[in-house]
Amino acid sequence: MSEQPRTVRVAILGAGTVGSQVIRLIHERSADLSERCGAQLEISAVVVRNVHAPRDVDIDPELLTTDAAEAIDHADIVIELIGGIEPAREYVLRALNGGATVVTGNKALLAAHGPELYEAAAQADTDLYFEAAVAGAVPVVYGLRESLAGDKISRIVGIVNGTTNFILDSMLNAHASYEQALADAQKRGYAEADPTADVEGYDAAAKCALLASLAFHSRVSMNDVSVEGISQITADDMMEAARTNHVIKLLAVGERCLDDLGNEVINARVHPALVPTGHPLATVDGVYNAVIIEGESAGRLMFYGQGAGGAPTASAVLSDLVAGASHRVHGGHAPRESTYAHLPIIEQGMTRTRYQLRLRVHDDLGVLADVASVFARHGVSIHSVDQRDGEPGAQTTIVIATHCAREADVLAVAEALRQSDAVIDVASLLRMEGE
Amino acid sequence: MSEQPRTVRVAILGAGTVGSQVIRLIHERSADLSERCGAQLEISAVVVRNVHAPRDVDIDPELLTTDAAEAIDHADIVIELIGGIEPAREYVLRALNGGATVVTGNKALLAAHGPELYEAAAQADTDLYFEAAVAGAVPVVYGLRESLAGDKISRIVGIVNGTTNFILDSMLNAHASYEQALADAQKRGYAEADPTADVEGYDAAAKCALLASLAFHSRVSMNDVSVEGISQITADDMMEAARTNHVIKLLAVGERCLDDLGNEVINARVHPALVPTGHPLATVDGVYNAVIIEGESAGRLMFYGQGAGGAPTASAVLSDLVAGASHRVHGGHAPRESTYAHLPIIEQGMTRTRYQLRLRVHDDLGVLADVASVFARHGVSIHSVDQRDGEPGAQTTIVIATHCAREADVLAVAEALRQSDAVIDVASLLRMEGE
User: What is its EC number (chains A, B) (predicted)?
Assistant: First the structure.
């Protein structure tokens, strides 16, 4: 039943950290890959900005070109690793429109223009793969598109940005300030000179949009994800979290939930959260990523591994390459965009989570009663209160954990507390994950 | 580009814990599954031993039948959930030979007759799926067959048997003896009346064979896996493990390693092992399963989730069902058996791991020197020695951890120690996992 091995021509756009590893591995594993695809993979072109730039891997100079169009038009499979929106979008569309299979690791492109790209792939009856776009080597895209295709996903929650995870780790372990930890991450090459996309949560939000789309069979774009980064997290927050046996992690969350009318809606968000130290996500450190997927039948699954770096990301690219090549040889295709559920996005402010508020208050008799009445007035139920011993007449700290409450209500509570005479300030307001 | 939904007829063999969940979910998720497959799934028959037996779910009495052949011959997809070798093998072969897609959760059948079944599937150009055969809802089969198809797997290590994991947990947490813990597991329905397959490691070995075959693109059968169960583990062993910050877990391990001539060989084994409490596998408790896959490029990935139970296993079956139905509608096929690497199995005794030996010795001067000389004589290098304070002249305990050593050499050391006058007995001999 074995087919005559044919040749599949692969054009690689970009020869940076990931691209150079992909090129190296296609050469090194040539025999293995050919057995697994049923086809010989031949790198037909490597598109770069400057063919004379120094490279980490040996690339046959004949393959190097700046002519993307030519390279794309003569390839069966195009691997896009240049990142950013343009010209990546133009190249990917050109490839798909021409019937080539596309493998990309470009989360920003997908989160912004996914539907257009999926549509082009479907029109040309070809495949669009993007395992490398989320969580590096961790196969969450396969997990959602295929391994859990028979389940009803209720929730995904994960750590999908290594840069912020590294910074939060440093703040926790080295008691560094946010600024020190960021500078250290930049020095080590874990954060970019302009760290905005990472630290403000946009990178995680793009991944969150992709995962939520897959999980809930609906279109979720970057704009549908509410985003809060880590730049407001202080060394104090980390220390206070530790006091209550929590760590702070930047989480990407996608939930299927019910609105006030009982209709299913999607809630997708990225924000720092207090995670109990015993929670599986609490121990995910450094540049590791982890995603928990909760299926109605499967229960809680966790996928864990390296979320970035040349080799791990190249591993994801190569798997997509094998799948894409196999489909070209044996027929069939990758799962197409699946949006049949058409779930709407939850209204702003309606998301329900648990919160922890840390208040500095005057240590007077009756302060707790005043504070508690603010919560009651806004319909926010208190789960626990931890009042620190203070000198009478001086200031003290109250840490209040709420039950699940609407975001809008909790923000109103915080605002009312800030206005209250009893309260000096709201030192922190953080969401809580886990029980 | 959407196809006219067609009907895919599904015959289910077995309506037990998993089968009844599968039937329920096919009904409940009918609309979703049809969107995801591009086909309406129709249960065409449910094959049982006794059509009048009481059932957990409502099944249309018209579908219930004892006529497996008739049911198989009229189905597009056959889901085999009866377990055991015969008649499961006969039914699966009949289905494959007739061109039906087969979804099975039968690890024993696959570990014993996998090549024959794969061959039948290839001959008839149809698909054989078995995600449910390993680790319940945890998608390790997808992980190895697809998500890591582009990587070179160096090692897999996992906890893949919930029964033994539950028993070991009870021994650790409730300080129960093995016999008490087993009886408790049986009472709760986690262990069978005849627990041999679980506690002696055969169930884990079947899964180990499947995972190693997929990981190393070679045939690994049940007989290629060296197996040691947990029935020899004592409450003492658990307590002693805790003293050195370890837990004891039953591990399934598959490794690509080099033999003395430098040739790649496969080493597949199931045995209890000491796992450091900080290791990701140490905290996998109860009926959860976890598998770590180490890829040359991906690095260390972990998959974690519920390893057994009706609903989680049904989730895996349904994913395979969606994949199988999609292929029938859209063309293409699942990955076929991949054995091109043809790696041989390591020779017995040549496996290299770290060991911990716990010796009861006479607390005399020079005992440690005697003991150490036995290790040296057999070429086993000692990593650490922990000698307990004892009354001079009385007996004491020495705990010795080795560096990586050949199994045959360590067994020879243990035998020599038992013969030695200085040593009262070798109280335990356990492999060590992790750093």
Answer: 1.1.1.3
pLDDT digits (tens, 9 = 90+) for A75-98: 999 999 999 999 999 999 999 999
Would you call B207 a catalytic residue per the annotation?
yes
| Chain-chain contact of A316 with B298 (C-beta, under 8 angstroms) | yes
Nearest to A332 among B148, B321, B331 (CB): B331
| Cβ–Cβ under 8 Å, residues A279 and A268 | no
Which of B26, B123, B147 best probes binding to A when mutated, by most A CB atoms within 10 angstroms?
Answer: B147
Given an 8 Å threshold on Cβ–Cβ distance, is A143 in contact with B146?
Answer: no
Q: Which residue has the tokens 């949009």?
A: A209
From CA A291, how far away is CA B230, in angstroms rounded? 32
What's the CA angle centered on B367, arms B362 and B371, to 5 degrees?
A: 115
Report the chain B residue with the minimal C-alpha distance to residue A314: B297
Which residues in chain B have Cβ-Cβ distances shorter than 8 Å to A331?
331-333
- Determine phi and psi for B283, rounding to 5 degrees: -95, 5
| DSSP H helices in B38-177 | 68-73, 88-97, 107-123, 140-142, 162-173
| Cβ atoms of B318 and A297 closer than 8 Å | yes
Q: Is the peptide bond before B87 cis (omega within 30 degrees of 0)?
A: yes
Greatest C-alpha distance within chain A:
86
Task: Outline where DSSP puts E strands in A188-263.
Answer: 226-227, 246-258
Nearest Cβ partner of A33 from B146, B148, B150?
Answer: B150
What distance in Å separates the CA atoms of residue A48 and residue A321, rounded to the nearest whole number? 20
Q: What is the pLDDT of residues A256-302, one digit of tens each?
A: 999 889 999 999 999 999 999 989 999 898 889 999 999 999 999 99
Among B40, B315, B320, the strongest candidate for a mutation testing the A interface, having the largest count of A CBs within 10 A, is B315
Query: Rounded CA gap, A287 and A174, in Å?
Result: 16
Nearest chain B residue to A21 by CA: give it: B297
Lowest mean pLDDT among A154-158, A206-210, B15-19, B386-390: B386-390
Q: What is the pLDDT of residue B57?
A: 83
Of A58-62, A232-236, B352-356, give the lowest mean pLDDT range. A58-62
Residue of A nearest to B314 (CA): A297
Measure Cα distances from A1 to A4, A251, A330, B130 in Å: 10, 47, 11, 21
Q: How many CB atoms lie within 10 A of CB A345?
A: 18
Q: What is the pTM of this model?
A: 0.94
Which residues in chain A are contacts of B32 at CB distance < 8 A? Answer: 152, 217, 341
Instruction: Give the pLDDT band of residue A4 (cuts 50, 70, 90).
Output: low
Q: How far apart are alpha carbons B183 and A237 in whole angstroms? A: 48
Q: What tokens appear for B217 in the block?
A: 């693109």
Contact B299 A312 (CB under 8 A): yes
Structure tokens at B55: 């059932």
Alpha-carbon span A91 to A102, nearest angstrom: 10
Q: Are strands B299-306 and B6-13 parallel, antiparallel or unpaired?
A: unpaired
d(C-alpha B248, C-alpha B68), whole Å: 43
Contact flag A306-B300 (C-beta cutoff 8 Å): yes
How many secondary structure helices (H) and strands (E) does chain B include?
14, 17
The SS3 call for residue A260 is coil
Average model confidence (pLDDT) for chain A?
A: 93
> Which residues of B are less than 8 Å from A137 in CB distance?
295, 297-299, 301
The alpha-carbon gap from B159 to the nearest alpha carbon of chain A, in Å, equals 14
Q: Is the peptide bond before A280 cis (omega within 30 degrees of 0)?
A: no
Query: Catalytic site residues of A?
Result: 207
Residue A18: alpha-carbon gap to chain centroid: 18
In A, minimum Cα distance to B336 occurs at A36
Q: How far is B130 from chain A (nearest CA, A)?
A: 12
DSSP state of A17: H
Hey, are the CB atoms on A298 and B306 less than 8 Å from each other?
yes
Please say if the pLDDT value at position B3 is more than 90. no
